[in-house]
Design brief:
84% of the residues lie in helices and 0% in strands. It contains 4 helices and no strands. The protein is elongated and about 60 Å long.
């Protein structure tokens, strides 16, 4: 999480930096890795943040040398998002069943 904040600070403090592409990529990588190390309970919010980091890189550098790896990270994030959404749906169903039984 500290690395994500450090890249956010770098990007805001040095908007025109020649390293902006790299900073955006490593910001995405940190967010992606943070998702994978998070508990399921916290992943939904962190996935959203990581996908936003991907979108920012793609918007600013659509021909980036990092796009292949970034697209792979996005695919992983999307699969993880589907898995988490499935878990949340099951929880809602169980809550409804429990409420009906009372």
């Amino acid at each position: 999480k500290a690395a994500i904040q450090a890249f956010d600070n770098l990007l805001s403090d040095y908007l025109g930096s020649e390293f902006k592409e790299e900073a955006l990529y490593y910001r995405l990588k940190c967010a992606h890795d943070f998702v994978l190390k998070s508990t399921d309970r916290r992943r939904k919010e962190r996935i959203k943040d990581a996908i936003e980091a991907y979108d920012k890189l793609k918007r600013n550098f659509p021909e980036s040398k990092f796009m292949e790896e970034s697209n792979e990270m996005l695919a992983t994030l999307q699969k993880e998002e589907e898995r988490i959404n499935g878990i949340l749906e099951k929880i809602k169903e169980l809550e409804k069943e429990t409420t009906k039984e009372k």
